[in-house]
Design goal:
- By secondary structure, this protein is α+β, with helices and mostly antiparallel strands.
- The chain folds into three domains: 84 residues, 2-Layer Sandwich (GMP Synthetase, Chain A, domain 3), CATH 3.30.300.20; 94 residues, 2-Layer Sandwich (Ribosomal protein S3 C-terminal domain); 42 residues.
- α4 packs antiparallel against α5.
- The mean pLDDT is 82.
Length: 226
């Protein structure tokens, strides 16, 4: 019985997440956190533009609470709206912004490059993947990279933020995936510095060899002239 209740609780949480996501798409919705307390259920909504969620004089709050009670059979719901401080570091917000821009007819390359620049003003690394019928009848995937980013290992689970969204266009559905590394952890900074030192050492060796070869050529030229 407990297992069934646990599964049903998980399904309900997903349904609440989808409901809030669709309801506050224009507000730059990121995600929600649902927590049971002794006083009831606390739902924290994170959005880039919380004013749209709250509404004028907070009129949306009571309506949302009533909808949550009716649609999902909840009691004693407390709704807490929080602002996403840096939207460019929230992968879900960025993915939805890209989806909305594509639905407005903006070219996918332009959208991806603009968003990539905006994200990299705050982040250490970013990857934007756009898949579907981007131009023509054949579906394909385009990736846009900047900075330093890991794709496997513990850093992906603990540090890399991942967001996904869909854009509904006439040719079909376009899938968007965004991965953002807000900042480099200490270990990755050391690894990056070592890689940069290796590159710098190779460049110095090549520069030295070029100078020595240049001197040799000048000496040979002088000998031939004399």
């Amino acid at each position: 019985m407990k297992e069934r209740e646990f599964v049903m609780e998980g399904i309900k949480r997903v349904q609440i997440e989808e409901y809030l996501r669709d309801l506050f798409e224009r507000a730059g919705y990121s995600h929600c956190e649902i927590q049971r307390t002794p006083l009831g259920l606390r739902v924290a909504v994170y959005a880039a533009r919380p004013g749209i969620v709250i509404g004028r004089r907070g009129r949306n709050i009571d309506r949302i609470i009533e909808d949550l009670k009716k649609k999902f059979g909840l009691d004693n719901v407390n709704l807490d709206v929080r602002e996403v401080e840096v939207p460019e570091l929230d992968a879900q917000v960025v993915a939805r912004e890209i989806a909305r821009a594509l639905e407005r007819g903006i070219n996918f390359r332009k959208v991806a490059n603009v968003m990539l620049r905006r994200v990299m003003e705050h982040a250490a690394g970013c990857m934007i993947k756009i898949s579907g019928k981007l131009s023509g009848e054949i579906a394909r995937t385009e990736k846009f990279y900047a900075g330093y980013l890991k794709y496997a290992g513990e850093y992906v689970e603990s540090l890399v933020r991942i967001g996904k969204a869909r854009a509904n266009l006439k040719p079909g559905v376009i899938g968007i995936e965004v991965r953002i590394l807000p900042e480099l952890p200490k270990e990755m900074k050391i690894e990056k510095e070592r890689e940069e030192e290796k590159v710098e050492s190779v460049e110095k060796i090549e520069e030295k060899e070029e100078k020595e070869n240049g001197v040799d050529k000048e000496e040979r030229t002088e000998e031939n002239v004399s």
